[in-house]
Amino acid sequence: MANVVVVGSQWGDEGKGKIVDWLSEQADVIVRFQGGHNAGHTLVIDGVSYKLSLLPSGVVRGKLSVIGNGVVVDPHALVSEIERLKEQGVEITPDILRVADNATLILSVHRELDALRENAASKENRIGTTKRGIGPAYEDKVGRRAVRVMDLANLETLPGKIDRMLVHHNALLRGLGEPEISADDLYKELASVAEKILPYMDRSWQILDEARRAGKRILFEGAQGALLDNDHGTYPFVTSSNTVSGQAAAGCGLGPNSIDYVLGITKAYTTRVGEGPFPTEQQNEVGEFLGTRGHEFGVVTGRKRRCGWFDAVIVRQTVCTSGISGIALTKLDVLDGLDEIKICVGYELDGERIDYLPASQGAQARVVPIYETLPGWKETTKGARSWADLPAQAVKYVRHVEELIGAPVALLSTSPERDDTILVQNPFQD
Ligand code: GDP
Ligand code: IMO
Ligand code: MG
């Protein structure tokens, strides 16, 4: 019996939500272990679309869903997401949703600081964050001044926590020439939401330990993608958490021996939202084609995603940094009808050929992709549900991707619909 971690292998939006929903039929518990409501995961079930940001994608099936300690939780965003899903007929109660008592809270001060910094930054320095307060909340967490979920249950110690946090934030606000925040307002903001959150509070580590001992299947749902990882990504144009699979254990309170299989969700081409290097970006008709065919608009901010060819160099690197056992290749259908398809197989950096993404910001901006060109296919793969339905040339593309990245395709996705998914090798039965 295997526990499976799902992670994004590019810059996010690879289709993690769809695959987690598909896999969750076989899982007993689904757990988020990093990120926050910067994530936007879309599930399409019988033509109905569900958009999740903070809730694990298993909630739609009514599976036990855990928001682990590694997640940063905006309590207001959580409450409104629960409400939104209720309107779509998905009832979320403490029977199926638990939030780690030691998860960090995102407060309005974080959201404001995120926006303030982004708006003040020059074009070159702007990260293009989702302005959800993710970075500032993680900064407070490692700075040991965060307010956490369990603090909502201890309103008598909350003022002290708030004071400690505001010593830092008000100094910053003064420096930026912005009005300071009153401890009273922050207290009221938290007290007002406490009773809506506390019924979900639980010990993530214990729920998962019990599940593990009982031989239940755990599905770990990553957010963002490996190139947005705070260590391994295109720093500083990254998010503020570790998005690689290694975070799955720490982000919910289990050991690494609880993870058996790492599934890297991989788009058949590449997209990125926000600023930062993107070697295979196509700011031309190819990029327009991919963006239009793939409906590449951000779920959270509605921003147009930047689009480009498949970059085997970065995915090959992710296979290493996340220990990927196999991939789910998504959005193959978007490539239908192209005369030829390019794949980046290496980079040229200052006249030399390299086969990895260098760590420095300058070098990442300078690498020039080296492409191989493959013939496209005229038939459609959209909605294909068996390998035999795929055109020969599409199969060749998939096989070549496997060879270049050094990992096998375990699942293939051919449309946004839950069941338009081809199973090659079941990650749970590894
Ligand atoms: P996530 O953040 O990784 O969960 O991905 P998003 O939900 O942000 O973006 C992926 C988008 O592609 C969503 O709109 C999905 O409905 C859609 N999608 C997922 N798999 C496929 C696929 O195989 N083909 C097509 N055409 N769309 C897909
Ligand atoms: P899912 O889970 C794509 C990007 C932002 C920005 C950078 C930092 O849907 O794949 P942040 O608000 O996290 O401080 O922004 O990270 N980003 C994402 N891009 N998909 C996501 O999540 C993302 N979450 C954050 O656009 O460039
Ligand atoms: Mg997304």
From TrEMBL:
- Per the record, the domain of life is Bacteria
The free-text note explaining how the cofactor binds reads: Binds 1 Mg(2+) ion per subunit.
A Gene Ontology cellular component where this protein is annotated is:
cytoplasm
Q: Name one GO molecular function term.
A: magnesium ion binding
Q: Which PROSITE patterns match?
A: ADENYLOSUCCIN_SYN_1, ADENYLOSUCCIN_SYN_2
Q: Which reaction does it catalyse?
A: IMP + L-aspartate + GTP = N(6)-(1,2-dicarboxyethyl)-AMP + GDP + phosphate + 2 H(+)
Catalytic-site annotation from UniProt = 13 (proton acceptor), 41 (proton donor), 141
Question: For Mg(2+), which residues are the binding ones?
Answer: 13, 40
- Sites binding IMP sit at 13-16, 38-41, 130, 144, 224, 239, 303
The keyword rRNA processing appears for this protein:
no
The answer to keyword Metal-binding applying to this record is yes
Annotated residues that bind substrate are located at 299-305
Instruction: Write the Enzyme Commission number(s) for this entry.
Output: 6.3.4.4
Record's keyword terms, sorted: Cytoplasm, GTP-binding, Ligase, Magnesium, Metal-binding, Nucleotide-binding, Purine biosynthesis
**Any one Pfam family match given in the protein's UniProt record, by short name:** Adenylsucc_synt
Q: Which InterPro entries match?
A: Adenylosuccin_syn_GTP-bd, Adenylosuccin_syn_Lys_AS, Adenylosuccinate_synth_dom1, Adenylosuccinate_synth_dom2, Adenylosuccinate_synth_dom3, Adenylosuccinate_synthetase, P-loop_NTPase
- Name of the top EC class for this enzyme: ligase
| Subcellular localization | Cytoplasm
User: What is one Gene Ontology biological process annotated in the Swiss-Prot or TrEMBL record?
Assistant: IMP metabolic process
Q: How does it assemble?
A: Homodimer.
Q: What family does the database annotate?
A: Belongs to the adenylosuccinate synthetase family.
Function according to Swiss-Prot or TrEMBL: Plays an important role in the de novo pathway of purine nucleotide biosynthesis. Catalyzes the first committed step in the biosynthesis of AMP from IMP.
- Which protein are we looking at? Adenylosuccinate synthetase
Which species is this UniProt entry from?
Pseudovibrio exalbescens
Gene name as annotated:
purA
